[in-house]
Amino acid sequence: MTAAPAPLTPQERWTLAVTVLGSSMAFLDGTVVNVALSAVQRDLHATAGGATWVVNAYALMLAALILAGGALGDAFGRRRVYGWGVGIFALASLACGLAPSLGTLIAARTVQGIGAALLVPGSLAMIGAVFDESRRGRGVGLWSAASSVMTLLGPVAGGALVDVGSWRWVFVINVPLAVVALILLPRVPETRAPGARPDWLGAAGITLALGGLAGAFTRAGEAGWDGVALVLLSVAALASVFFGWWEGRAPAPMLPPALWRNRIFVGTNALTLLLYGALGAVSLYLPLSLIGARGLSATAAGAALLPLSLLLAGLSGYFGALADRHGPRLFLTAGPALAGVGFALLGVLRGGYWTSVFPAAVVLGLGMALTVAPLSSAVMGSLGRERSGVASGVNNAVARAAGLLAVAALGLLLVASYRAALDARLQAAVGDAPWRAQVVAQAPRLTDVQLPPGAPAAAQAAVRAAFADAFGTVALAAGALGVLGGVAGGVLLRRQDTPGRPAGR
């Protein structure tokens, strides 16, 4: 008879409560804002570029600084740095909720991302340091389950807040969560890893590289490849070269070059870049399409991908166990490819929710469920047990960067497709109306396009249909990224050297 697991100690219980509260705020703000973006765009009169930066400002800081944030906690105390992150995040959230203009909101989102980069890596680090080794897996599992529930309910709750109140409450709701976390934080013991130090020059280089590339794509979507876009692209290229040069010489590099000689590590991160890039872009642009083109409420739009989340939560453990027995290669080939089919179905299927979004979300959920746990296992095992934390941290950063870059690049595709579809749809609906060119020129405003007074109802229908067409193009592109992720998994993870399987078996 199996003995009952030992109960958690008070310190372990408080650590779990604090880390769930803090990390849930950061995870929620990575998804909830997508549901509120249509209302933000309408109230603050944002263009596509402005709306994109409401998302990307947060993602950029989190992707670029998450490894430095983890090293900072190791050096100066994980509890201390976690508290800094929660406090910064809370103040920035309040600033987001009170923002009088788009520029202020983007600036506050940037600070929010810095706070998230301090608290996210500290969550698991504190659990790993405080929990007894015999209960550490249980602690991580409880943290993961609680955080997943919060993330699962976040878009629905965020949509409800937008519908019954304002998009501002999506940000303000973080403040009481942060206050509770800070009140409980002194009950968590302090831990650190002497000798750790952040790679600030590396963090600066990758921030400029990612920010410049995202800025170039965003600018090109609104104004074409003008001088500003080309300067941003040049900054990104120079920063990338500097980052690669510095990481080969830094005393404590955030991304040691030797990692990239490991084919499993390269394969899992290539898969992550492609698949999570597609997921990040679709998660942003699908709610805009559902609200702006189909007329759904924010609550309904937030619940649209609930089947994906439920399947992911319910099946990940099962497929993870199968991957442990049979190796991850098959799962990391079939899963991303199936997810790619789900993305593509979002662009191909038409009609109501149950005949278009729901079946696509089910296929997408099955693909992600096949992928997520085997991918995490392969990542953690790619560099061996002693470097599993480094592997996980880099993969987390790659996933964040993937969403940032895909939102910008596919946003460029979205605007170009919308402009063409808007011109064609309006031509069919109103012919050569004198105001048609002026409306087409508003394509960078996405769902906030304004028709002149007296425009016929057919023109409004044409605007909605054009945005649905443009989203369909983006969904098909995301589908291609998913399939390419499956190709990366199949090619770079050969059967004989996948983690957990003896060579030649």
UniProtKB/TrEMBL annotation:
InterPro entries: MFS (IPR011701), MFS_dom (IPR020846), MFS_trans_sf (IPR036259). PROSITE patterns: MFS (PS50850). Residues 15-497 form the Major facilitator superfamily (MFS) profile domain. It comes from the Bacteria. The keyword Transmembrane applies. It is a multi-pass membrane protein. SUPFAM superfamilies: MFS general substrate transporter. The chain crosses the membrane at residues 53-72, 84-108, 114-131, 140-161, 167-188, 200-221, 227-246, 266-288, 300-323, 330-351, 357-376, 397-418, 470-493. It holds the Pfam family MFS_1. It is found in: Membrane. Keywords: Membrane, Transmembrane, Transmembrane helix. PANTHER family: EXPORT PROTEIN, MAJOR FACILITATOR SUPERFAMILY MULTIDRUG TRANSPORTER MFSC. This is MFS transporter.
